[in-house]
Fold DNA-binding transcriptional regulator, MarR family.
Amino acid sequence: MPTRTGARARTTYFPRLAAERPDIALCRASTAVARAAEAAAEQHGLGVGHHLVLKMLAAVGPCSQQVLSEELRIDRSVMVGIADELEKAGYVRRERDAQDRRAYAVTITTPGRRALTRAEKGVPAFLDQTFAALDPAERDQLTALLGKLLATDSTATD
Amino acid sequence: MPTRTGARARTTYFPRLAAERPDIALCRASTAVARAAEAAAEQHGLGVGHHLVLKMLAAVGPCSQQVLSEELRIDRSVMVGIADELEKAGYVRRERDAQDRRAYAVTITTPGRRALTRAEKGVPAFLDQTFAALDPAERDQLTALLGKLLATDSTATD
DNA sequence: CGTCAATTGTTTGACAGCAGACGATCGCCA
DNA sequence: TGGCGATCGTCTGCTGTCAAACAATTGACG
């Protein structure tokens, strides 16, 4: 026992803490998950934010950056960079909205749809690996609980 | 209804996304929770990290910064600052470990215990408010699920 | 028509977090 | 004894995020 003498009692304090402070557990879990997600996403050349923007555009049609920000819970300032990069990659078009010339109408392009399809392909494997500790029923439970939590989160100030 | 014309159809896309991507739901929920926790914690002059360090010291006795880092999932670099501030506030003592002069033996002081007691007092109210969307049973479910997730997280590389 | 608050997209500055490198120290081994 | 890899605490630089300020535009109201 050269390294790690008895002093390093592997305190195992954390489980106790996690049980007592769901907020801490939530944050710690999310950082690990977020890191894994970003790594998995960038294998396709898209960050998580880019992926989500494409996904939402494909699902609901052209949007302003503002709507994208609010729905995806991504800051407006950050959305600027994401839109810039997506446009530069040719995955979206940015045109001024005719009805409201302040806003852009961000539209997904055909290459964008292809990139989205490619990125989506990796998602199930990533989820299976990241949530391997939970069986399908538990995963559904977690999703439902988080959904409840988010439905009343502080961003819903209106 | 001057503002918010009909064009803002309140897409309500997010719930669908959250149901499909538990990783995103986790991250979004955690940022909201983390912000609230930090705000609540700093009412007592302690950040969340400071609070956790005091809590762990009170629970398991003197520790090295390394052990504190690992158990609390706080980076070593960040722990330096936390320990500095706690020491300056008189809440912990930092002495060199006699057995291993590289490491500190961080010990909580009596003022530190008082500060901890004060900070702990606010926790139940904060949790009740932050997890108001969940009844006690659901809160326990969430805690259990997160515990499972964290037990096998990537930091457990050993 | 002119004014004014509100909204959209953007830029800027501040700040937290992390990776990497460093000196000091430890344990091990020749 | 001396050397060598590993560990602890620290510092530095980078990245990503957020708050605040800004110009352009809109809609409402006098």
Observations:
- The domain at 45-122 of chain B is CATH 1.10.10.10 (Arc Repressor Mutant, subunit A).
- Chain B touches chain A through 64 residues (CB under 8 Å).
